[in-house]
Amino acid sequence: MPATSRAETEDNVDLSIIIVSWNVWEQLHNCLASIDEISTAVGSRRFFGPPDQRRSLEVVVVDNGSQDETVSQLPHAFPWVTLIANQANLGFTAGNNQGYAHSRGHAVYFLNPDTVLDNARSGGDSLWTLYAPLLADAEIGLVGPQLRYADDSPQNSCRRYPTTLTGFFESTWLGNLWPGNPWSRRLHMADWQVDFRHDVDWLVGAAMMARRETLESVRMPAYAGPFDEGFFMYSEELDLCRRIKASGRRIVYVPEAMVIHHEGRSSEQVVAARHIHFNTSKVLYYRKVFGPIWAERLRRYLLLEFRWQLLQERVKWLLGHKRELRQARIDAYREVLADGLSPTAG
Predict the structure, then answer these.
(1) Within 13 Å, how many C-alpha atoms sit on residue 105's CB side?
(2) What is the per-residue pLDDT for 5?
(3) Is residue 285 classed exposed, middle or buried when 0-12, 13-18 and 19+ CB atoms within 10 A define those classes?
(4) Residues 220, 261, 242, CA angle at the centre, nearest 5°?
(5) Domain residue extents for the chain
(6) What is the band of 296 on the pLDDT scale with cuts at 50, 70, 90?
């Protein structure tokens, strides 16, 4: 057995992993199994990292009212995981804040349930490979790994801040018409290589690790965690990273640490709600950063897009083309338009 480490002799936790889950037990199981693969139990505690440097670890899963097997199966499959079982879906952002408030780690890893640590291609340990740069440089406040889709194609996760026009061309019908538009390319840092470690403005929130002291320094007094709960889900990581950068800390992309991300497994269960949360969060971010006039311009434009898409789907339905699909989209777009995409906070 290796020599006793600092983490084993002190009553502390070096790293907390927080996972917010909703009806994705199979994916959550795979995620936790990949953590189990590179961590070890010593008594009642869990550790990760090289034998001569290992650090203490805790995993907190916040379940947002799942109707699947998550709550019943998780304690038996992974007894070393702390489960917080909510009766309702509090939202991704509030769930992460709840897990954060319950955690004790000096560093915190916010990890999606539909991710798997790719340990084999991360020097044998994706967790340590990401944690080590954060540990080594006090100026770094937050790090993120290289994300890959299930088919192993790169998933862009490095971003620049949006400009006033980005919201009109990113993940919109107009952006689909002009996929090479300069605003989306700038946002996605298309001019940078995926395997190059570098500082970025912000990182996709599927896998983000940060120092607790950094998160505390930017935490809003109204919330128990670092995220602004005005964002139910989507854009919350952009908002958090902007506050971290404004505090003078660095945000670093670490491609040597790899994570497979099966994107959207929770949100794809509720299409209309996904559209509403995604676009309302864009409007809220615009209001916070660019002001109410630009936020209202974006909101009206997005609603115009949904009206146009609704018209298209109605015509296709009348022509008898895949009527079940068209009706589902018509219902979703109607729900978005009825919502109005008006943020209630921020």
Answers:
(1) 27
(2) 39
(3) buried
(4) 25
(5) 6-156+194-267, 272-339
(6) very high
From 3.40.50.80, 3.90.550.10, 3.90.1150.10, 3.40.50.10490, which CATH number describes the 6-156+194-267 domain? 3.90.550.10
H/E segment holding residue 49: none
> Which residues, listed in sequence order, are joined to residue 247 by a DSSP beta bridge?
none
Which amino acid, one-letter code, is at 239?
Answer: D
Whether the model clears a pTM of 0.85, i.e. scores above it, the answer is yes
Query: Would you say 76 and 69 are in contact if contact means Cβ atoms under 8 Å apart?
Result: no
Looking at the chain, the number of H-run helices and the number of E-run strands are: 13, 14
* 3-class DSSP assignment, residue 35: helix
Segment (H or E) for 72: helix 70-77
Which residues on adjacent β-strands are paired with residue 107? 15, 211
**Which tens digits make up the pLDDT trace of 16-38?**
999 999 999 999 999 999 999 99
Beta pairing partners, 111:
207
What pLDDT is recorded for position 44?
81
Strands annotated E in the chain: 15-21, 39-42, 45-48, 55-64, 82-86, 107-111, 115-117, 140-148, 154-155, 158-159, 198-199, 202-203, 207-211, 250-261
DSSP for 180-242 reads T-HHHHHHTTTTS-TT--EE-SEE-TTEEEEEHHHHHHH--TTSSSSS-TT-SSSSHHHHHHH
Q: Which two tokens stand for residue 91?
A: 């939202």
Distance CA 318, CA 259 (A): 44
pLDDT tens string 69-119: 999 999 999 999 999 999 999 999 999 999 999 999 999 999 999 999 999
Q: Mean pLDDT, to the nearest integer, of 35-42?
A: 95
| Among the listed residues 159, 161, 174, 183, the one whose alpha carbon sits nearest the alpha carbon of residue 302 | 174
CA distance 165 to 169: 7
CA distance 208 to 251: 10
